[in-house]
Amino acid sequence: MSPEQVAEQEREHATDLIADLWRGFSDSWDTGLASAYQYMEEHNHPAMGCTAADYESYYQFVEGTELEIIVDQDSVELDEGWVSPAIGDVPEGTIYIFTINATSTASQPELLEVHAAILDGEAFFFYECR
User: Is there a domain that residue 104 lies in?
Assistant: First the structure.
């Protein structure tokens, strides 16, 4: 395989992991806020250092809030050298930038550009908690 083919194969695999990450996050809201905050703790980049309690305190969503996030899979691309504002450095892992469509009962629908890292074969997002 050419280097370009390898890079495309890696991007496709990362895209699948990223889509699964956000789909799981959307699904976690179906079972309540505690589940959503726990998912955030477990799937946030380790360097963020956030707990479910941190998220609950920071976001203060109302029980019954619903959230659906859909990844624009065609928008996923490498973003080497990106510095996380929350971390103040380049996070560990392979960093991707992409667009998500976020629909929530707590706010208007939003089209957002966000980052995720692939680290040890798992996707992580970057949700601030402070």
Answer: yes
CA 30 to chain centre: 18
**How big is the CA angle at 87 (ends 81 and 88), to the nearest 5 degrees?**
65
Cβ burial 28-45 (10 Å sphere, 16+ → b, else e): bbeeebeebbbbbbebbb
In a domain, 114, yes or no: yes
Within a domain: 81: yes
**Count of the separate structural domains present in the chain:** 1
| Strand, coil or helix: 119 | strand
Q: How many CB atoms lie within 10 A of CB 6?
A: 10
Determine the residue type at 8: E
Which two tokens mark 12? 């496709």
Other beta carbons within 10 Å of 59: 16
Q: Express each pLDDT in 27-76 by its tens digit.
A: 999 999 999 999 999 999 999 999 999 999 999 998 888 899 999 999 99
Give the residue ranges of DSSP H helices in 29-93. Answer: 33-43, 52-59
Domain that holds residue 71: 3-125
Does the residue 90 lie in any domain? Answer: yes
